[in-house]
Amino acid sequence: MGRSRRTLPEELLLLALDPATGTTAQPQSLDLGLAGAQLVELALAGRIAPDGDRIAVVVPRPTGDPTLDCALELLRRRGAPVRAVHWIGGPRLGLRQVYLSHLERCGMVAAVPGQMCGVLPTTRYQATDTAISREIRSRLDSAIRTGVPPDPRTAALAALAHAVGLGKHLYPGNEGRSSRSRLRDLIRHDPMGGLVAHAVMDVQNGAAAQPRRGPATAGRQAGPAVRATAEPARGVPMQPRRGSMARAVAH
Question: Where is this region: Disordered (predicted)?
C-alpha cells in the first residue's frame, strides 16, 4: 500500500481534529472508531473479509503500512475468524495517540506543546495542510447533499464518523439535524463499513459480550455513547513510545 492515499484511520482522525483548538472530538470513543477503520482499510486492501459478524484473514501478506500490518498480524495469530465486536471492544492502548504521532511524522499535523491548568504538560495538534481536512469533509458533505451513493471508502468513513459520534461535531445544532440523519443513513452503502460501525456502537452500548441478533436488528437505532474510562491494553497494534508519543494529548 503506497502513501499516495491516506488510510481510513488517518482520515477519521483528521475529521475529528478541531482546527480551532487542536484537540480531537469524541476522544474516548475515537479509539474504537480507529480500530474499526483499520478493519475497513484492511478489507479494502483485500487482506480480510467479513464472515457473518466475524472477520477472517484471507491474504496475510503485509500492506506496507506498519500500523495496519500490526493489526493484520494480530488477526492472523487468532487462527480463526474473530467477531468484529470483540476485536473492536478489546482493551487498547492509545490508538488515537499512535495515529496522531504517525500523522506528525508524516507532516500532516504539527504538535504544539502547552499546559493544562498552568501545570500539566499537554500537546495539541494543528493540521499543517487544511486543504486535506477540507477535502475529506467535502466528500462527506457531497454524499449528504447530493444523495448519490458514495464510493465504499467515503461510505465507510461516514459510517464510522456516525458510530463514534462525530455527527454533532461536524453538523451541530438544530440546523445540522437533517445532515446528521443523512450521515447515519450512509451506513447502508458499504457492507463492511456498516458491519464495523455497528460493532463500534455495540461496544459503546455494552453489547460486546452478547451475540448479534442479525443484520436486520443489530445496531438499529443505536446512538453513539461515550465510555467513561479508558481500558488497559491487550491484543491491539502497539507502537514504541518515543518522541511525540510520550506527550499527553489535551481532550
Answer: 207-251
The separation between the first and the last C-alpha atoms of the chain, rounded to the nearest angstrom, is: 32
pLDDT of residue 141: 94
Neighbours of 97 (CB within 10 A): 20
The phi, psi pair for 134, rounded to 5°, reads -65, -35
Neighbours of 113 (CB within 10 A): 11
- Residues recorded for the chain: 251
Taking Cα atoms as reference points, which of 88, 91, 90, 61 lies closest to residue 76? 61
Model-level pTM greater than 0.85?
no
Domain ranges of the chain: 8-205
Work out the burial of residue 210: count CB atoms within 10 Å of its CB; fewer than 13 is exposed, 13-18 middle, 19 or more buried. exposed
pLDDT tens column, 26-61 = 887 999 999 999 999 999 999 999 999 999 999 999
Question: What is the spatial distance between Cα 193 and Cα 190, in angstroms, rounded to a whole number?
Answer: 5
CA distances from 122 to 9, 23, 28 (A): 23, 10, 17
Per-residue pLDDT at 112: 87
Scanning the chain, the segments in alpha helix (DSSP H) are 8-16, 27-44, 66-78, 84-89, 95-105, 130-146, 152-163, 167-170, 177-185, 191-204
Residue 249 bridge partners (DSSP): 123
Mean pLDDT for 63-69 is 94
